Amino acid sequence: MEETSPVQTYRCDQCHVKSTVKEAFLLKVDRQGKVRSSLCFECKTKKDAFNLLALFLMLPAIGILYALIPPLAWVSQICFQAFAGLLLMFPLIILHELAHAVAGKLLGLHVFAIQLGAGNLIYTRRFGGMRWYIKPFPLLGLTFVAGPEMSRMRLRYFLLHLAGPGLHAVLIGLLGLATLAIPALRPGSLAMQAIWVGIWANTLLLLTNLYPRKINTGGVSTGTDGWAMLNSFKITPQKLQERFAIYYTLQTVDAVDRGDQPAAMEWAEQGLALYPRQPMMINALGYAYSNLREYGKARAAFLQALDCAEQPPESVKFMVLNNIAFANLMLGDPALLEQANEYSELAYKNFPWEPAVGGTRGAVLVVLGKVATGLDLLKKAMALNPDPRGKALEACLIAEGEMKRGNFVEGKKISLRRHGSGPTMRTAGAHAPHVAEPGGSGCLKLSRDCPWTLPIQFYKM
Predict the structure, then answer these.
(1) How is residue 108 annotated by DSSP?
(2) pLDDT in tens, 29-69
(3) Adjacent-strand bridge partners of 444
(4) Which phi and psi (to 5°) does residue 159 adopt?
């Protein structure tokens, strides 16, 4: 009998969250391969944000202090220049990601989204044919890029990643030439200092992006541009097939984001015809069905993705489990409640940072009669969900949960607010599916008119 090795569970040293998704943690490993420290990506982001804020506060304070000591005035100047360099980081990150986006378009790839910053989402909208995500801390940027099967794909990926650092190298060269070619620039002048600040900031970003290292962001493993360039020509044929399938997956998600459901189905079916064994492609088909409110077909696709011969990565597996659990709820079959409970619990245990997963688990708990705990998860999910459609769904479920525990006034308020923002919600009616409460005669009725956005793993540049 063949023995399978146990799945390793990772644990954050600060918040103690646990997961089998290795990519969700920053691990420090010794030479023997033993994990010495572990931080989840949320705690790592908080730590980096704290350090950045400390720098923003300390540099001008130290600069002012040393400005009062004439012999050490040069220290004050360095502090203020470093502070100005930090202020330049966010606009330079924007230019860096735009360089990737422009290069992607020139190389025949499709740019789906750009994320600027880290932390909780503060703003999102579609602009220029793509989705933009703005976050508060200028720690990183991500460009979501993929393309169909074309010739010389490895070279295209190499050039795509080269574009970001290449921009900083060009800017350094131009600023350096300016110091030599413009006679009016005097050493020590404000303009000359500004140019050197620009050279310093671009040099820092160039080096940090070229240094080859892996980066884990919320269950997805990516890497710096330097790491990606080193590995571009090592991509196996199997990995290339996965990337091609991701292109059709993202086209499906993008069509839903635009509100074009027929196009979403077309992209999903086209991708599945080309890559029928890719779990993420099958999951995308279920996603398209779910947005057409064909939850039976969606559930069948998700189950197929889970049982696919090519086993999905741990992060994708938990997303699929979450999707099955929610499809079960939307179908309203009491016989599927046990599976919804099992799958949502497993998904939330290993993917608690994903708002859609927390929202699904909260909805299941409300149905099971654990209303207070379920509502807490739903409210947290609604606060963190970057998608307006996802927020609307969670608001629907919160309203129904409040009514379920007898808080009709609050439930009605939430219901009326959601009516005014687009999606409709019914808490009763012949067409609303329902799941019977254990030990009771009542039911929680989930409206088919509530929008639903399933999480889909992105390919990040």
Answers:
(1) T
(2) 777 777 788 888 788 888 888 888 898 899 999 999 988 88
(3) 435
(4) -65, -35
In angstroms, rounded to a whole number, what is the distance separating the alpha carbons of residues 165 and 266? 37
Q: What top-level class would CATH report for the domain 237-445?
A: mainly alpha
Token digits for 180? Answer: 């030599």
What end-to-end distance do the CA atoms of the chain give, in Å?
A: 42
Q: Which residue has the tokens 């025949």?
A: 108
Q: Looking at this protein, which amino acid is placed at residue 118? A: A
SS3 category, 238 = helix
The DSSP bridge partners found for residue 88 are: none
Distance between CA 64 and CA 317 in Å, rounded? 54
What Rg value do the Cα atoms of the chain yield, rounded? Answer: 25
Residues with Cβ within 8 Å of residue 398, at least 6 apart in sequence: 375, 378, 379, 382, 414
CB burial of residue 193 (10 Å; 0-12, 13-18, 19+): middle
Give the three-state DSSP class for 69. coil
User: Are β-strands 123-127 and 130-134 bridged in parallel, bridged antiparallel, or unpaired?
Assistant: antiparallel
Torsion angle of C-alpha atoms 363, 364, 368, 372, degrees rounded to 10: -40
Q: For the chain, what's the residue count?
A: 461
pLDDT band at 409 (very low <50, low <70, confident <90, very high): low
In 7-152, which ranges are continuous DSSP H helix? Answer: 41-67, 73-106
- Per DSSP, helices labelled H in 307-407 are 314-331, 337-350, 355-367, 371-384, 388-404
Residue 37 pairs in a beta bridge with: 28
Q: Residue ranges per domain, the chain?
A: 66-232, 237-445
Residues 131, 111: Cα–Cα separation, whole Å: 9
